[in-house]
Amino acid sequence: MKNILLVGGTGFVGSHVCEKLVRQGWHVTVPTRRLSNARQLLPLPLVTLLELDVHDEAALLRAVAGHDAVVNLVAILHGTQAAFEKVHVALPQKLARACIAAHIKQLVHVSALGADAQHPESAPSMYLRSKGQGEAALMQAAGIGAAAAFDLTILRPSVIFGAEDKFLNLFARLQTVFPLMPLARADARFQPVWVQDVAAAVVRSLERDGTVSVANTPRIVEACGPDVFTLKELVQLAAQLSGIRKGRGRPVISLPLWMGRLQARLMELAPGEPLMSRDNLDSMQRDNVASGTLPGLQSLGIAPAALRPIAAEYLKRK
Ligand SMILES: NC(=O)c1ccc[n+]([C@@H]2O[C@H](COP(=O)([O-])OP(=O)(O)OC[C@H]3O[C@@H](n4cnc5c(N)ncnc54)[C@H](OP(=O)(O)O)[C@@H]3O)[C@@H](O)[C@H]2O)c1
After folding, report:
1. I want to staple 117 with a disulfide (CB 3.0 to 4.6 A). Which of 31, 86, 136, 249 is the partner?
2. Domain for residue 297, yes or no?
3. Cα 239 vs. chain centroid, distance in angstroms?
4. Residue 45 domain flag
5. What is the band of 120 on the pLDDT scale with cuts at 50, 70, 90?
6. How far is 50 from 31, CA to CA, in rounded Å?
7. 160 lines ligand 1 (CB under 6 A)
8. Same domain? 20 vs 119
9. pLDDT in tens, 290-312
10. What is the pLDDT of residue 217?
11. Distance, CA 8 to ligand 1 centroid (Å)?
12. Closest Cα partner for 71 from 18, 25, 143, 134?
């Protein structure tokens, strides 16, 4: 039985990873800022919840100690430069230091497609730049070859779909409310991947024996589905699969970039999490599709599922 520390285990992907890990018979510790964020994990056996500020390095070190491996799924989609650096760069650095201090041999880090650890500054948005910097920090801390401090796997998913996703569900919901869908970067391309496939990739990565494969670290895997869609196609598909206006959905109006930025700025000013930020638009300057030069899910023995039949199931229900 393995003991896994699942940081970010209360989120969309984390909840699925947690389920799969306990199904393996492994024990999972899930730190969370608020226990109420972990309600969905309460019915699972073999899970210990820990109310913790993961940014407190001393507390993090205590949480890491005694585990066989650590998984990091913590991320934010919106925020200031300082917030992105805190969550996507400083936290991975703290996790790496904690792993080394506690002699943890394996770390699986979920990043994002479009992050570039070699040239983080070349990425078009704060989100992607900080994701690349976080990867680079982990790679440096892990080291390579026989001297590697820990076995590192970095997973880079494209946008993730699943019953609780925040993109197809959102596109469908918006079309029940608004008569038109004004969209900037409508031609941006994505290769959506199923949440269960991403969760399976985390488990497969943990199954590999860190002591045998350290010479190959770090391993970067791009987690993409089998099909590529533009943003406009995804908006239309969400309407079609949820039967909005008999599947016709709302007309999608392509906005020029300046108008899209204005729209995003207004959304940022609204209370709560913005539906879209200017930084999100910046991320879309880079197509969110597999590079073709890095291994994909197949390298972990996973045949990624197609979006259409799975999304049809949950969008129809809602
Ligand atoms: N969803 C996607 O489409 C997508 C696409 C590409 C990459 N990814 C990557 O996949 C990973 C998981 O994504 P997800 O969609 O599952 O994210 P999520 O649902 O937003 O969950 C994020 C987790 O991070 C924790 N968290 C959020 N903000 C935090 C902060 N400021 N300080 C400490 N903890 C914080 C939350 O824990 P508590 O609230 O319990 O503390 C939560 O468990 C992330 O690395 C993300 O970048 C996701």
Report:
1. 136
2. no
3. 24
4. yes
5. very high
6. 4
7. yes
8. yes
9. 999 999 999 999 999 999 999 99
10. 52
11. 6
12. 18
Please give the residue range of the domain that contains residue 139: 3-160+193-223
Are 263 and 217 in the same domain?
no
Give the span between the Cα atoms of 115 and 124, in whole angstroms: 10
Residue nearest to atom 2 of ligand 1 (CA): 160
**DSSP code of 147?**
G
Q: Are 27 and 138 contained in the same domain?
A: yes
- pLDDT grade, residue 278 (50/70/90)? very high
Please work out whether the CB of residue 8 comes within 6 Å of at least one atom of ligand 1.
Answer: yes
| 159 Cβ closer than 6 Å to some ligand 1 atom | yes
Would 299 be classed as within a structural domain? Answer: no
Length, in residues, of the chain: 318
The DSSP-derived string for 29-98 is EEEES-GGGGGGGTT-TTEEEEE--TT-HHHHHHHHTT-SEEEE----SS--HHHHHIIIIIHHHHHHHH
Q: Give me the CATH number covering residue 110.
A: 3.40.50.720
76 lines ligand 1 (CB under 6 A): yes
Q: Are 121 and 199 part of one and the same domain? A: yes
CA distance linking residue 135 with residue 99, whole number of Å: 15
